[in-house]
Every structure is written in C-alpha cells, then in structure tokens.
Write a structure and sequence with these properties.
Shape: globular
CATH class: Alpha Beta
Number of helices: 7
Order of helices and strands: HEHEHEHHEHEH
Distance between the termini: 8 Å
Largest sheet: 5 strands, parallel
Helix content: 25-40%
CATH architecture: 3-Layer(aba) Sandwich
CATH topology: Rossmann fold
Length: 179
Amino acid sequence: MRFERERAPRWLRRWCPNEYVQSVTEITPESLQARGIRALLLDLDNTLTPWRSREVPPEVEAWVKRMQAAGIALCFVSNTRNMARLKWLSERLGIPYARGAMKPRRDMLRRALQMLNVPPKHAAIAGDQLFTDIWGGNRLGLYTIWVHPMHPREFIGTKISRMVERWILRQIEPYRQRL
C-alpha cells in the first residue's frame, strides 16, 4: 500500500510513510531499483527479528540474501542497547550497522549512508515504528517503508507510543492510494 504524502497536511507528513508492507519480505529489489534506490537501511526489532531475539525467520534470511544478490546495500540502524546482539546479527547476516544518536535523530542514518556511500535520494528505510524509523527517514528525505510489527512483544515505551501511532494512522488513512 502506498501513501500520497504530498496531499497530507504538512504537520502529518513527518509520520506518513511512502509505503506500508506486512513484512520486509514484500519489499523487492526490483521495486527499489525502479525508484533509483540502491541502499536500504533496516530497523532490527520487530522488523527483521522479534524484539530482543536472535531468531531470524528463514524467509527473512532468504530475503536478505536476495537483496544482497541484487546489489541492494543493506545497513542496520537500530536503537537497540544490546550491542552484542547487534554485532552477532550483523555478522550472521553480513549486514553492517551504524551507531549514533537514536532515531528519529538523523546522525545514525547519515552515518549509515556514509558507510554505504549513497546519498539520501537513493536510499530507503524500513522499520516498524512511525515515531522513530519513518519520522527519522522522512527528516532525511529517504523513501520510507513502514513494516507491520512482526510480534506483539515489545519495549514498554514502544507499547505506549503505539497508542498515539494508532491515532496518527487514522489521520493518514485518507491519503492512502487506492490501487
């Protein structure tokens, strides 16, 4: 599902993704390349793995390999405080990670783009939270893909922000493109 962000009120655009998918596995290298996107920044918790888990579903692992084989550069941009887990997943999947100020601040996202040597106009971000992943990506001019959270278990602060997120989603619904 896509959104017509330019039609949304200015105050709402910061949280309005360009696109919504049920799972990262719905994102194809072909659809990214058709938009001129060469790099995809990835949230970790509830986007690629369940919260606080090292479990990578087999279909997600296959998707990562497909993206890499197609030449899409990938980089983790996670707010996780568990560096050992982030490093382990980085090594296991062959995906580098960027550290910096927490999303939605732009520092970590800029660092990831520098690592991949890609300007914002040729990059996208995929994540499960409007207030971190989507807002951060929109602040930097990235193509933003909101992913349905893969598991209901999450940080208590995220559970609280989900209540406000549901209200925002009702506000952006009129700007959903009818395909």
